[in-house]
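For homework, think about our next protein:
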Amino acid sequence: MTKLSDLQYILLSAASRRDDGNLYPLPAGVDPRGGAKAAGALVRRHLAEERSTAGAEPSLHITAAGLKLIGVEPDVEIDSGGAGDSLITDAPPMRPNKAALLLALVQRPGGAVIAELTEATGWLPHTVRAALTGLRKKGHAVERGTRDGKTCYRCGAAA
């Protein structure tokens, strides 16, 4: 899953509540420079796109991938400025990051041993253990046990 900053989530959320899906105007309290930087990152990730409308300057609008990422299902298609395209388009698939993969593996009923985690992520064992510590710091209850004489890691939901 794509990792977004809090500001990027705020921009996508605000755009999802607008009829046209426009990222602008920025929500109150958002610095224009930081908002522009965050919007640019959303465009590069195909979560927002630039659209032109007749007689108006181009503006940035949330894409179907952006809506899907924040968990919003559009009730109706958002007007794309007469381009004939609907908001619901085929977007490039989002590649899950390795931390999300690691979390999914340790959340399996049997958990996962270091060998499985290193093979899946391509990380060295010490990197896997550091990532597991990071999951603990984020509130996940990562538990250590044994399976077939090897250390096994299991995780429940975030606390």
User: Anything to note?
Assistant: The chain has a mean pLDDT of 80. The chain has six helices and five strands.
